[in-house]
Amino acid sequence: MWICDDEGRLICKAEWEGNATAYMPQSYIEQAQDRRNDAALERSDTRRANILAEQRTPALGTSGESVSIGGMVLDLNNLPQFGEVLEAENLARTAETPPVSQAAAEDKGWKVPSDKAERYALYWQIKDEAEFARSGAAFRPPLPEQRGVSRV
C-alpha cells in the first residue's frame, strides 16, 4: 500500500505486518516450549515408573541362578539336594519329638476351659487384668454374676 499526502506526493510504502514484532522474543517462546516438553517427558517417566511398579514380579527361577529368601540364599540349580538335606533334618527332629497324646498327658499346666461359661468368664478376667494393668489400679476379678454369667 502506498501512502500519499493531499497533493499526491508519496509519503511511504506500507507492507502488511511490515514492522510487526512478536510480543515475546522468539528465544523466550522456545525456552517455554522446551520447559513444556521437559515436563511432559517427566510425567511420562513417572507414569512408566508407576506402571513398572504395578507389574507382577516374575516367578522364582526365571530371573537368575540364586534367590534370597529371608536372608538365606538358595542356589536354584542345587535346590533339590538342599530340599533332601532339610527333609532329612526334619525327619531326625520329628523322631525326637514325642507324639501329641504323650505330651498332653505329661503336661500338668493350664488347660483351656471346656465349658462355654468358663471360657467366657476367663475372657473377661483376662480383659479386666489388661485394663487394670494399664490403669495402674489393683486387680480385683469380677464375680461371674457381675458379668452376666450363670452357672448351670
Your description of this structure?
- The chain is mainly alpha-helical.
- The chain has four helices and four strands.
- It has a two-stranded antiparallel ribbon with strand order 1-2. Strands 3-4 form a two-stranded antiparallel ribbon.
- The longest helix is centred in the first third of the chain and has 29 residues, at 26-54.
- The protein is elongated.
- The model has no long low-confidence stretch (mean pLDDT 77).
Number of strands: 4
Give the structural class: mainly alpha
Average per-residue pLDDT, rounded, comes to: 77
Shape: elongated
Low-confidence stretches: none
User: In what order do the strands lie side by side in the largest sheet?
Assistant: 1-2
Helix content: 40-55%
**Gyration radius, in Å:** 43 Å
- What percent strand? 5-15%
What letter string, H or E per element, gives the SSE order?
Answer: EEHEEHHH
Biggest beta sheet summary: 2 strands, antiparallel
Q: Alpha-carbon distance between the termini?
A: 116 Å
Question: What are the SSEs and their pairings?
Answer:
Blueprint: E1 2-4, E2 10-13, H1 26-54, E3 66-69, E4 72-75, H2 79-96, H3 100-106, H4 116-135
Antiparallel strand pairs: 1-2, 3-4
From the structure above, extract its key features.
152 residues; mainly alpha; two-stranded antiparallel sheet; 4 helices
Summarize this entry quickly.
By secondary structure, the chain is mainly α.
